[in-house]
Amino acid sequence: MSLAIVHSRARSGIQAPVVEVEVHLSNGLPGLAIVGLPETAVKESKDRVRSALINSHFEFPSRRITINLAPADLPKEGGRFDLPIALGILAASGQIPVQALAHVECVGELALSGELRPISACLPAVIASHAEGRQLILPADNSHEAALYSQASPLMASNLLEVCAHLHGRSQLKACTSKPAEPIPTSQDLADVRGQPQARRALEIAAAGQHNLLFYGPPGTGKTLLASRLNTLLPPLSDDEALDIALIHSVAGAPHRWRERPFRHPHHTASAPALVGGGSQPKPGEISLAHRGVLFLDELPEFSRPVLEVLREPLENGEVRIARAQAQAVFPCQFQLVAAMNPCPCGYFGDGKGRCRCTPDQVRRYRMRLSGPLLDRIDMHVPVRGIHADQLRGESDEETSADVLTRVIKARQRALARQGKTNQALTAKELDQLCPLTENQHAYLSAAMDKLGLSIRAWHRIIRVARTLADLAHCEQLQDAHLAEAVSYRRLDRPMA
């Protein structure tokens, strides 16, 4: 038979659409042509495949070889199509049985010797092939990543000869049996933070309700230390959540430990594409790599304003859409934003010691680097003051992360049992149903809204924070104290004198 079809998988965002590799041998001058929107790396596969077949002691047909990668309008990139192209040539020339390819899919890059090299973003292909009901053949070096999806058992091969022997029925490829590594316990703990009761309280509230948080205060007061401890207060990941995180990091080619919440800390010189993702073939950015984890932006006003503005829609929608000339992609980005900033250019505004030499105009211009719409999307604005040196003496008697985590888990369980989601994810309609305000509470919040110049979005975010405070206090109804504390976390919204 001079025609063979091999199923493979392309890469499109976090999806792995099926690609049919059609190989046809015809009479004419010997040659090999690849059609179907291949990129440079795919076009170069013809030379790798030819050498791999010859060095594996197969016959390379001296005929006209046409290879079509269907669908033709889907861009194909990388070396993942080497193995299906090689198998298609062997099947079309009668060197392996065509019927053996009907229920398998394969991806893999070939070395000139016929060895199989690992590919990037294999996890989406494992999930998609399992959903399709086909057995996936992968390079053996991808076994660690493939093992993250426990429902599938892809076959692992080290070279082309092993794959062909399996298709002939002479031997069986081994299924992936390796297990994902257990997360390494962190040495970080909230007990490392001395003093700062208000900031510690804010971290607990943020962890319980999945709220965004901004720390502001003079240099050296522990803003970065506090932010780095938020991950230790977040509940353990479920299997589905861990798989979501692994999927994004697989596509990005970024290393990540299984069952560990991401903590991304980009430098303030990062560009907008670095944060949201991009490229001719779109890849995830920092906000997607922080999915189900924490995105920490230190020295927030030092980020360029256009870079910060790209965070506005992802903070609301929980996903980012990237459109490029050749491809489009949608990446999830349900992250918690934690930011830190100084109150003025020198950092000592309002420290009570008179060290600040900034003029009111300089302070105003510094804060104007942050737009109102962005600050509006940050639920809690928390001041961080310096502590006295005496508080650093002796053993720490502060609460540990484990102590706080127990309360956080109970508060989240109350929210999930009530509404099936965290308080941060509640819509305006759900807030009206689940968190009705009394007349006095409504009047109080209206007065605070007028005095602080808050928006309707801030109104809803205050109620979400108050709902989390009530969950932490084991209260079904919002109390006046919960609402007052939630309003106190909007201090940075006050206009400067």
From TrEMBL:
It comes from Simiduia curdlanivorans. Belongs to the Mg-chelatase subunits D/I family. ComM subfamily. PANTHER family: COMPETENCE PROTEIN COMM, MAGNESIUM-CHELATASE SUBUNIT CHLI. Residues 209-388 form the AAA+ ATPase domain. This is YifB family Mg chelatase-like AAA ATPase. InterPro entries: AAA+_ATPase, CHLI-like, MCM_dom, Mg_chelat-rel, Mg_chelat-rel_C, Mg_chelatse_chII-like_cat_dom, P-loop_NTPase, Ribosomal_Su5_D2-typ_SF. Signal peptide: none annotated. Keywords: ATP-binding, Nucleotide-binding. Gene3D superfamilies: 3.30.230.10, P-loop containing nucleotide triphosphate hydrolases.
